[in-house]
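Let us practice reading a record.
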Amino acid sequence: MQQALQNMRVVDLTQVLAGPYCTMVLGDLGADVIKVEKYPDGDDTRTMRPFVKDESYCYMMVNRNKRGIRLNIKEEAGRAILYDLVKTADVFIENFRPGTTCKLGIDYETLRAVNPGLIYCSISGYGQTGPYSHKGGFDIMAQGLSGIMSMTGEKGGRPVKSGIAIHDIAAGVTALYSILAAYVHKIRTGEGQYIDLSLVDSGLAWTVWEAAAYFGAGEVSGPNGSAHRVSAPYQGFQTKNGHILIGAANQKLWERFCQDVIDRPELLEDPRFITNSDRIRHVDELEAIIREIIIREESQYWLEKLDKAGIPSGPIYRYDETMNDPHIRAREMIIEYEHPAAGPIVNLGFPAKFSKTPGQVRRPAPCLGQHTREVLRELKYSEEAIRELEENQII
């Protein structure tokens, strides 16, 4: 089956989450991704539980559709192999702390001399420039600096990090679309280029409504529970047996909500709630009124009424409930395939449904060093040379 990126080759020196997520999606779309893992222990994620037959499930989640080699690039012979690999590549991606690639001799200027058309992407905590560029940075530090932690949680509570690694995934997605844009430019002109992106910048770029409040009105967004910053009612409410989400996010939906769902048409004449702006100004009073009504009945009762009225709504699931929801299953967001060591693997599916070039699982995540010999043979290394590299602990 044809895939959109089947002629792209990616040399991937990233580990943990942001970079591997990006290169996984490139692989899902057909790119030949060669994951170069450090010698001798490989990607740090390989140590993260849970394990299935000694294989880390965390590692397997974001490293499918890649070939894996184990390479000691601290040694000259290891760098020589990497240079040979870069000569064949369209994309090189790394997530070392700024300055490390220069020390290793794998920085952009060095690799551009090896392959002038190379697209080179660096992912770091804070970026390659600026007063914090030298610092190491993980997702949680980025959540703190971007202000996201200060906006997450309930009013009056302490700062709370997002339930997922939001800056890591944001950086992976930013790297993905940036590489694809650079690849289009390369196809048109033959030119490669350098891409510098950070966890902080990538997540900060997603704070759209919060930036609007700050730049437009000087407002500093704080924690708001499940409530929206510019629409009401648009949040979660407790029912008799659980929690649901209600999104009456415009005037028409608000009117339907009052008339057809909670049977409180008098709220439409209440001066506190006439317009959306009024409702936002008096959101605490509005929330209290709705909360007192919604808690009287079970979740399914309200979800059926909301659905009948055409008002966006839904449950607030535990993750196990999500994984067993019939809609999630019907959308093929849960897939299964075989891993050579771990056996049957369940993974997340492909969020984009292409009509012509769909995502595919062509190979599971590699075992450590699984494809080293295969890749070296493609680079025209002899069996004798490969044995010598193994004996010298280069591969």
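A brief commentary: The first strand starts at residue 9 and ends at 13.
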